[in-house]
Amino acid sequence: MGFLKMEKLVLIFHVLTALSIIGLILLQQGKGAEAGASFGAGASQTVFGSQGSGNFFSRLTAIMATVFFVTSFGLALLAKQASEANVDADLPQVPAAVEQPAPGVEAPEADSDVPALEAAPATEVPTVDEIPEEGADEESPQ
């Protein structure tokens, strides 16, 4: 039970890390943003210091990417452990195959809990020549 909780916890942390990486990438400025600073748009970068937001967001994105890869590796290990633990648990027990005897040799009676089937009475199947055609009168020769 604790194993499943651990896997869910790592999975939730993994998804939150992925969403934070997406948010951080969307917040970063492109390379063309420096050109706007010469026209008076540079005042918005003073919140993050004289270097602007690029260095801060770049480092935070790198850290979150590292966390993302570590949680990916952790999820892979947890999945491997779960598959090794349940390999034989869900498989049905199948009896060993019985060899078929050669033609003409009687097979020994097998002990089984399944009752034997009774043979159905053989019915004769008519051949194509014996089936009358539709619309043809049976009494008149053709």
From TrEMBL:
A UniProt-annotated Pfam family: SecG
Annotated segments matching region Disordered: 93-142
Biological process (GO), any one: protein transport by the Sec complex
GO cellular component terms attached to this protein's record: plasma membrane
Keyword Transmembrane: yes
Keywords: Cell membrane, Membrane, Protein transport, Translocation, Transmembrane, Transmembrane helix, Transport
Amino acid composition bias (Low complexity), ranges on this chain: 93-107
Database matches in PANTHER family: PROTEIN-EXPORT MEMBRANE PROTEIN SECG
Protein's recorded name: Protein-export membrane protein SecG
Record lineage: Bacteria, Pseudomonadati, Pseudomonadota, Gammaproteobacteria, Cellvibrionales
